[in-house]
Every structure is written in structure tokens, then in C-alpha cells.
């Protein structure tokens, strides 16, 4: 396929998927001031780039402010982001805070730095959001980050838990959004190459890369290569949850479940293997729990491909 056409299709797809996530989760509303956290990595550059495009054509008016926290890691090229953002003509703020020295001082040699480092970074970014009057904080996590987190929680955390597309921050004061929640990482890699973002390496702190996350990321990539569509199905599954078919008693009233005596064609066949349903393309109703056709059915919106 002609390269230009392919690039045009990639841009359309990125805008469509980001727009879809914004609408599905009501991420951005009229008058919002969105603080876009920019690390210098491909994902956050891509996020800002696509949000700027959507800002031009969105039916609602919103502001964007790019924010970078310069943590004073050795070798951080502090001129790169200001130069790039000035050229782009976007409003930005660089917050200079030497969290690197604090972390190095407090954490014993050889121990992982990330937990304290991210706690400090979070607190600083919340404060900056307050100072800038930001109503939303946008982060650059994408679909594959969310799936990696899901698998990590499943394998190591004994929890069925991914990464939310929208959440209220732990201080209760901020709404954090992830507009790239539907975007596969490979599209962001290609977009970064195409747009020639001035990428800043993420290894400056010298911290060990999270090995488990890396392994899970490789697993997802291998699956996608061997079984195209599997990763996409996993992402769709996050929007298609059937609490009656899991075992969390806090989510489904198993204790009070009673036979109703009323047959239900779409109910479960208790003695048969559960068939694996093909993903639906339309909003659908989760099946009612077996023997309880009167129970309300949760309507779960399933993502559809927009043109
Ligand atoms: S990788 Fe480095 S910058 Fe990132 S959280 Fe860990 S210590 Fe901080």
C-alpha cells in the first residue's frame, strides 16, 4: 500500500480511537482545562499530538496545557521539550523538582526506586494541576499498558483488575483520564516515527526495568503475532464483564440466588460446557444468571468500529 495512504489511515485511526474513548467515558467536557502529562516518551507525545488535532474539530471547547516534570535525572536533555512545545505553539509548564536526589538518598543501593519516585511525582503533578486550574489530568497509557496491568494483577496480584480509563485521584481532588485506552502500542510506535518526535530515553534514572511487565508485554506481542485478534478480544473483554460468571460475591448475589421455575432460553445450561461466545459488535445484554430470569441484565456497551 502507498505509504502516504497508510499514514493517513493511521492518523484517522488514532483520532477515531482517541475520540471514541473520550466519548465513551465522557473524559473531556465543555470548558475543561486538560493538563497533558508529557514525559518525553512516544506515548505522551502521541497523546498531546492527537488531542491537539481533536481540539480543532471537537464539538466542545477545551484547553490543553502540556506539563513536564523535570526530575533532574542525570543527562536529562532539558531543552528538548521546551523547544518542541514552543515550536508547536502549545501552552506548557515545566516543573523542576529534584526528586532524583531524594530517591537516591532515601532508597538503599540496589533497591528499586520506582515506588518512592512515582509517589513523589504523583504528589507534585497533583499540586501543579491545582496551580494551573486543570480540571482533568491526561496520561499517556495505551491499550497494551492496560492489558499488561490486567495480566500482572491476574498472575501476581490475585486480582481481576486492569487500569481505569478514567478515575478520581487518590487525593479525591482530580479526575485522571487515559484517552489512549483504545490505542494499540504499535500504532503509537509508528506515529512517533512518522512525526519524528524528539524522544527522550526513559532509562536516565538508572532504575531496573520492571522485568515482569516486560515479560508480559513480550507475551502479548507474541500472542498477537501468532493469533491475530487475541489481544483485541482481551481489550474488548474489559468492556464485557459478566459478574454472574465470576466468583466475586461482592459483585453478584450468589447467596440469595433462587430457582424461579420459569424457563429462560438464554439462561445457562448447567451441565454443558460453557460455549465461548464470539465478541458481539453491538451493545448487548449480559446473560441473566441461571434460574433467575427476572434479575436485571446489565447493558454493557461494546466498542464498535466507527468509520
Ligand atoms: S523508572 Fe525511573 S523515573 Fe520511572 S518511576 Fe522508576 S525510578 Fe522513577
From TrEMBL:
Cofactor dependency: [4Fe-4S] cluster; Mg(2+)
The enzyme's E.C. designation: 2.8.1.-
Residues the entry annotates as binding [4Fe-4S] cluster: 114, 117, 205
Pfam families per record: ATP_bind_3
Span(s) of short sequence motif PP-loop motif: 39-44
Miscellaneous note of the record: The thiolation reaction likely consists of two steps: a first activation step by ATP to form an adenylated intermediate of the target base of tRNA, and a second nucleophilic substitution step of the sulfur (S) atom supplied by the hydrosulfide attached to the Fe-S cluster.
Protein family membership: Belongs to the TtcA family.
Name recorded for this polypeptide: tRNA-cytidine(32) 2-sulfurtransferase
Source species: Hydrogenophaga borbori
Amino acid at each position: 500500500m502507498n505509504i502516504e495512504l497508510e499514514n493517513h489511515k493511521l492518523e484517522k485511526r488514532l483520532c477515531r480511537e482517541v475520540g471514541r474513548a473520550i466519548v465513551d467515558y465522557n473524559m473531556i467536557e465543555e470548558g475543561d482545562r486538560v493538563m497533558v502529562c508529557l514525559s518525553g516518551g512516544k506515548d505522551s507525545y502521541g497523546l498531546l499530538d492527537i488531542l491537539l488535532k481533536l481540539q480543532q474539530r471537537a464539538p466542545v471547547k477545551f484547553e490543553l496545557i502540556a506539563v513536564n516534570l523535570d526530575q533532574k535525572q542525570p543527562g536529562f536533555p532539558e531543552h528538548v521539550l521546551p523547544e518542541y512545545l514552543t515550536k508547536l505553539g502549545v501552552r506548557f509548564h515545566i516543573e523542576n523538582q529534584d526528586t532524583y536526589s531524594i530517591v537516591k538518598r532515601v532508597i538503599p543501593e540496589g533497591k528499586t526506586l520506582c515506588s518512592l519516585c512515582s509517589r513523589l511525582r504523583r504528589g507534585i503533578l497533583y499540586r501543579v494541576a491545582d496551580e494551573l486550574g486543570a480540571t482533568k489530568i491526561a496520561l499517556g497509557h495505551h491499550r497494551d499498558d492496560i492489558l499488561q496491568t490486567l495480566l500482572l494483577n491476574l498472575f501476581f496480584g490475585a486480582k481481576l483488575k486492569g487500569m481505569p480509563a478514567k478515575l478520581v485521584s487518590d487525593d479525591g481532588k482530580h479526575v485522571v483520564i487515559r484517552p489512549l485506552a483504545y490505542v494499540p502500542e504499535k500504532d503509537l510506535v509508528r506515529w512517533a516515527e512518522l512525526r519524528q518526535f524528539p524522544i527522550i530515553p526513559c532509562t536516565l534514572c538508572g532504575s531496573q526495568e520492571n522485568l515482569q511487565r516486560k515479560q508480559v508485554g513480550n507475551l502479548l506481542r507474541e500472542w498477537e503475532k501468532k493469533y491475530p485478534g487475541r489481544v483485541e478480544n482481551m481489550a474488548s473483554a474489559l468492556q464485557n464483564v459478566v459478574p454472574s460468571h465470576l466468583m466475586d460475591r461482592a459483585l453478584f448475589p450468589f447467596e440469595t440466588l433462587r430457582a424461579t421455575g420459569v424457563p429462560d432460553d438464554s439462561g445457562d445450561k448447567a451441565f454443558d460446557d460453557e460455549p465461548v461466545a464470539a465478541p458481539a459488535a453491538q451493545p448487548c445484554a449480559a446473560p441473566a444468571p441461571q434460574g433467575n430470569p427476572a434479575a436485571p441484565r446489565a447493558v454493557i456497551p461494546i466498542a464498535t468500529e466507527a468509520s
